[in-house]
Specification:
Length: about 300
């Protein structure tokens, strides 16, 4: 793990994966519950690592006082409001601005110039899949703003952040952040792009207006590769695949590759790997950054 990786975040994320359980969750009742969630929200949590799911469900069992999975299933059916709390628990939204700052530096110095050069006349299209409450797409917007100013160029830019947690997307649109999420933001950027008010930092309109937010499930392999979800120069999908089973990871990566233009880049999280079969289509853009360039 590099020193830039936030240890606390890593532990928070991975505790969910490695924690053992004694859970009153028989495979049959868990399967029925996951099917029920799929029916309510069209999200297939069967693609997630079982340890993650069980640990997150345990939190809801404890919060609602239900002794086992079958009782919780009944509770969920009788309390329509519970589904939002459950989705909130199942989706781990640890994030902060400029997470792994060296990736953003590498992007600015080595990756963006090549992309801008190769696609001079295009609108620069960036997609942040699994964007939580917006920290990552807004970091990319700040980076782009500064890059464009420095290079004195004027490309059109489209940045979209997507997630399956609708509340997270609403919070992203509000763009109000605690000091914790800004710990990697340099002072100059903090002064320039944020205003401190009532204990929170509000992001400036000039950056907010650069990002669009929308619901999208990366495991939905039927997403058409046209319209909004087509022809990306850069896709960030960091710290999302870490929660998925291996086969689901491969399917998602297959799907995401189809949205990236040749010579465009895909960013994965520091603890995530590109499966070897995908390395036929990608090459490392820069070692140790988890930035991969599509070559085919
Ligand atoms: C740990 S956060 C990562 C946020 C950001 N990418 C980062 O690295 O800081 C994981 C995000 O993935 C989202 N997520 C989980 N499953 C997803 C899915 N199937 N499709 C889209 N987003 C998903 C969660 O809701 C959560 O906001």
């Amino acid at each position: 793990m590099s020193p830039d990786y936030c240890v606390e975040d890593y532990l928070t994320e991975n505790a969910m994966i490695t924690t053992g359980f004694d859970d009153g969750m028989k495979a049959g009742s868990l399967h029925a519950l996951l099917e029920h969630i799929r029916g309510l929200r069209a999200i297939d949590f069967a693609a997630y690592k079982p340890g993650t799911i069980r640990r997150c469900l345990q939190l809801r069992l404890a919060a609602t006082g239900m002794p086992d999975c079958a009782s919780y299933h009944k509770y969920l059916s009788e309390n329509p409001g519970e589904i939002d709390a459950l989705i909130d628990s199942l989706t781990i939204k640890v994030s902060h601005f400029f997470r792994n700052p060296f990736v953003f530096e590498a992007l600015h110095e080595f990756v963006l110039p090549g992309i801008i050069d190769a696609f001079k006349d295009d609108t620069l299209r960036i997609w942040c899949a699994g964007c939580a409450t917006g920290e990552e797409p807004y970091s990319l917007a700040i980076l782009l703003k500064e890059f464009i100013r420095k290079e004195a160029i004027s490309p059109k830019v489209f940045i979209i952040g997507t997630d399956i947690d609708r509340q997270a997307l609403k919070d992203a649109e509000k763009a109000l952040y605690s000091a914790d999420s800004l710990s990697e933001v340099k002072k100059g950027r903090l002064d320039r792009y944020f205003t401190f008010k009532d204990g929170l930092y509000s992001l400036s309109e000039e950056i907010r207006s650069m990002v669009t937010f929308a619901y999208h499930d990366v495991t939905d392999l039927s997403t058409p590769k046209e319209g909004v979800f087509s022809d990306y120069h850069l896709i960030f999908c960091r710290n999302v695949l870490i929660y998925f089973e291996q086969d689901a990871c491969k399917n998602v990566l297959n799907s995401l590759s189809g949205f990236i233009l040749k010579s465009g880049c895909l960013a994965l999280g520091e603890a995530e790997a590109m499966p070897s079969e995908h390395m036929l289509d990608f090459e490392e853009a820069l070692p140790k950054t988890k930035l991969f360039r599509r070559v085919k």
